[in-house]
Amino acid sequence: MAETQEKKISAQKSQTLFDMIGDEDGYEALMDHLQAEFCVENLLFLTELIQFRDHLTGCGMMQRYSLRDISATKELNVPISIPKSPLLQQTQLNTRDDDDDTQTFFDFFVAIYEKYICDRSNLQINISYTKRQALAHEYNSQLQRQRQQSSNVSVETIWDALVLSAGEIISLLHHSAGRCKLVAKSNKIAK
């Protein structure tokens, strides 16, 4: 157990947030720290969005719709050992071979909105009111289109709103990662 903790602490040394999230030990250390800060939902949201981005890249939607990446400065990845997003798994299970990519995109958006963004969510992420309202508007607009059996899913608009929200989460996580490193450093000194 002590060896695992030491491994996590060493993984935290001189790492940026992106390095930390991309490293299995760093990811676990940050997740542990976020549990203590009662804001684990921020990393969970970002993780599921990264995995969805990877899915969109794999099926060609990122390129086809010219969607921007989650981070404009550096590639953001999670360790391959992190379990696949349950939302993404369910969305893929519900997708029929004759469904188009936009339906899969819409289904994932609805699931991620209801899990992390809507007012009744138990895992509501820490984003600004403006961004939450923009996502709520897209959610309600898309549901209205769905009821009218319109296949006009606004992929670019929805993705941009999600990326802007991810930007706020990344900013918060930079601060948390800094505190995580300070806690690890003070724990090491206390030993």
Layout of SSEs?
Layout: H1 2-12, H2 17-22, H3 24-36, H4 40-58, H5 61-64, H6 86-94, H7 101-116, H8 129-147, H9 155-190
Concise summary:
The chain has helices at residues 2-12, 17-22, 24-36, 40-58, 61-64, 86-94, 101-116, 129-147, 155-190. The protein has 191 residues and is mainly α.
Please characterize this protein's 3D structure.
The protein is an all-alpha fold. It is 70% helix and 0% strand. It has nine helices and no strands. Helix 3 (24-36) crosses helix 9 and helix 6 packs antiparallel against helix 7. The protein starts with a helix and ends with a helix.
Low-pLDDT segments: 9-14
Shape assignment: globular
Beta-strand percentage? Answer: under 5%
Number of helices: 9
Overall strand count: 0
Q: State the secondary-structure class.
A: mainly alpha
Order of helices and strands: HHHHHHHHH
**C-alpha Rg (nearest Å):** 18 Å
Mean pLDDT across all residues, rounded? 86
Biggest sheet record: none
How far is the N terminus from the C terminus?
15 Å
Helical content class: 55-70%
